[in-house]
Amino acid sequence: MLGLSAAASIRVCNELGVGHPRVAKFSVFVVTGTSILISIVFTAIILIFQVGLSKLFSTDPEVIETVIELTPLLAISIFLNKNQHHEDHELNGEDLVHGV
Question: Taking the complete model, does pTM exceed 0.90, yes or no?
Fold first, then answer.
């Protein structure tokens, strides 16, 4: 996901340098939307396969139950962290776009 952030930052900076603030703003929306979509997919996969993932690493019922209880926190963490990198990089460039 950091590669996507780097590519978006370069795209935004290039568009701002050429004088196309609206294209830069659209690029930010596209990358943020893509990041949110990827985060939703990974979060759904983790939540759907939480029992299978817990059994993959342990056969102890207590460990399996604990992993199942903690899996929603992992899913939330993945969702929030995947979006943070993009917004952090892009907002620095977007701050230069005044009046868009």
Answer: no
Quote the domain boundaries for residue 23.
2-94
Structure tokens belonging to residue 63: 């460990």
Q: Contact, 89 vs 5, CB < 8 A?
A: yes
Query: What phi, psi does 30 have (nearest 5°)?
Result: -65, -45
Please report, as a single letter, which amino acid is at residue 17.
G
Residue 60: phi and psi, rounded to 5, are -75, 125
pLDDT digits (tens, 9 = 90+) for 70-85: 999 988 888 887 666 5
Mapped onto helix, strand or coil, the DSSP state of residue 96 is coil
Q: Is 13 exposed, middle or buried (0-12, 13-18, 19+ CB in 10 A)?
A: middle
Spatial separation of the C-alpha atoms in residues 43 and 51, rounded to whole Å: 14
72-81 CB burial, b ≥16 within 10 A, e <16: eeebeebbee
What is the tally of structural domains in the chain? 1
